[in-house]
Specification:
alpha/beta, 3 domains, 7-stranded mixed beta sheet, 18 strands
Length: 477
């Protein structure tokens, strides 16, 4: 490895999403010279907020988990997040309602188990065994489920389709897959982090969290450039040499870390001619996750029928999630009864989500308003009575909106679909054919959700630091 010139960076991070921010903070705190280039005018990716008059909306992510008992708490402690923002847990974190049942997930796991056992008394023993597996798995048991779907795991404990659907619906909402397609390994992680240790929200909105990480990065000496798109990753002798910015030209670097869409990273920024054919063939076969259709509502302060704020309210009209997935994939929304509603902690806004396909520009021009009105009516009928009369502001985001602001392929909400066949591919973390290039975030096939991508960012920083230390020792010798 050639010694870089004095103006080179140790590492350049493409994209200031959650994984890129975490990775950058660790590298900068370790003393590396780091540039982070973000094409949007604010950091955070899906963890951003926006204002419309007196209303503040979380753009996509609206809560997170894994803070008290997972990796996210350790990461935030390492970086000093708790010294900068106030994080509150809402309890219960999630409430799932169907025409027949209502269940809640509480911070006290025994209370959650009691709720499920009271609703499904015939499955009381298996409910206890299922939750025990998720909270206290032995390493061999977890290793065995890597090739399973989440449905395989559920079938080990339950024959009741209704309890399987009630346990799986929040995973369908947070991974855009039914249990018959979702990796059991990823499903179990989402369950532990989002449902059993969930409901966390930073005071002031998700942008506060992203801004705090950006501040920590800059305080450690990091160079954060917003509204700065990367045009190309440059290479020399099968090794990265830096990036070309759309405005600013070539910037040299020892390492390049992409927190961007994997297809964009390899096929556009790196260039098809620099990518091994085998990886191009694999990407052509891989399936991105569904996206999300979001309705943002500003509500009158006199609204009296809003449920408890900060809680995720899920409504499930029927129990066949495989059919729900196929309907969403086709853009068939005749049944609007599969959605999530979240009331902001200050009770000024309501956000409603449902899984949706990328769709054509014409499809969303035709259906955007119709679907938002139908979703509001469904929420009004099943979750928030009289909602319509309290609405004073309305806005929507389609998958094309999400793609425009994040550059995620097809507006994907979670990177590649988390099926067992698209799990933990090493070339999506550190491609073997280009030295010095790393990927981080939910396109790596190694994690999704805020806890998952934050951990990937932390682990990517560790990989870079080990490599840099090794190369420095080689040069000294």
């Amino acid at each position: 490895m050639e010694k870089p010139d004095k103006d080179a960076y140790d590492a350049i991070i493409i994209g200031a999403g959650m994984s890129g921010l975490v990775c950058g903070c660790y590298l900068a705190k370790a003393g590396l010279k780091v540039l982070m280039a973000e094409q949007h005018h604010k950091p955070g990716g899906y963890c951003t907020s926006f204002r419309r008059g007196r209303f503040t909306f979380d753009a996509a992510a609206h809560s997170f988990g894994g803070y008290a008992h997972g990796n996210l708490g350790k990461i935030f402690k390492d970086l000093g997040i708790d010294n900068k923002i106030n994080i509150k847990q809402h309890d219960p974190s999630n409430v799932i309602t169907s025409p027949d049942h209502t269940v809640s997930f509480w911070a006290d796991i025994d209370k959650t188990i009691d709720v499920f056992q009271s609703v499904f008394p015939k499955d009381a023993d298996n409910i206890k065994r299922f939750f025990n597996f998720l909270t206290e798995p032995d390493s061999m048991s977890f290793a065995r489920i890597r090739s399973w779907t989440f449905k395989d795991l559920l079938d080990k404990y339950f024959t009741n389709d209704r309890i399987q659907a009630m346990l799986s619906f929040p995973l369908y909402g947070n991974g855009a897959l039914p249990p018959s397609r979702m990796s059991a390994f990823i499903g179990a992680r989402i369950f532990k982090e989002f449902l059993l240790d969930g409901g966390y929200h930073p005071a002031g909105g998700m942008q506060v969290l992203s801004d705090a990480l950006a501040a920590i990065f800059k305080e450690a000496g990091g160079d954060l450039r917003l509204s700065t798109a990367v045009k190309k990753i440059t290479t020399k002798n099968s090794e990265v040499s830096g990036v070309v910015l759309e405005k600013g030209g070539f910037v040299p670097s020892l390492y390049v870390i992409s927190n961007s869409d994997a297809r964009r990273t390899f096929l556009t920024l790196l260039g098809k001619n620099n990518v091994e054919q085998d990886l191009k063939d694999r990407m052509a076969r891989m399936v991105p996750s569904l996206s999300t259709f979001i309705v943002y509502l500003g509500v009158d302060q006199a609204a009296t029928t809003l449920p408890v704020s900060g809680v995720n309210y899920w409504y499930l009209s029927q129990y066949d999630l495989s059919t729900a997935y196929l309907s969403a994939k086709k853009g068939d929304f005749r049944d609007m009864g599969r959605y999530l509603v979240h009331v902001s902690p200050d009770r000024s806004t309501v956000i409603a989500f449902m899984n949706a396909p990328y769709g054509s520009k014409r499809y969303w021009e035709t259906n955007r308003i119709v679907l938002s009105d139908r979703l509001i009516k469904a929420v009004e009928a099943n979750t928030i009575p009289g909602l319509s009369k309290y609405i004073v502001y309305k806005e929507t985001a389609t998958p094309r909106t999400l793609q425009r602001y994040t550059l995620n392929h097809a507006g994907s909400a979670y990177g590649w679909e988390s099926t067992p066949f698209q799990l933990a591919d090493p070339d999506f973390r550190k491609p073997s054919f280009i030295r010095g290039l790393y990927l981080t975030g939910h396109w790596t096939t190694h994690g999704l959700g805020i806890p998952g991508v934050a951990y990937v960012g932390y682990d990517t920083a560790r990989m870079v630091l080990r490599k840099k230390t090794h190369n420095c020792q080689k040069m000294l010798n």
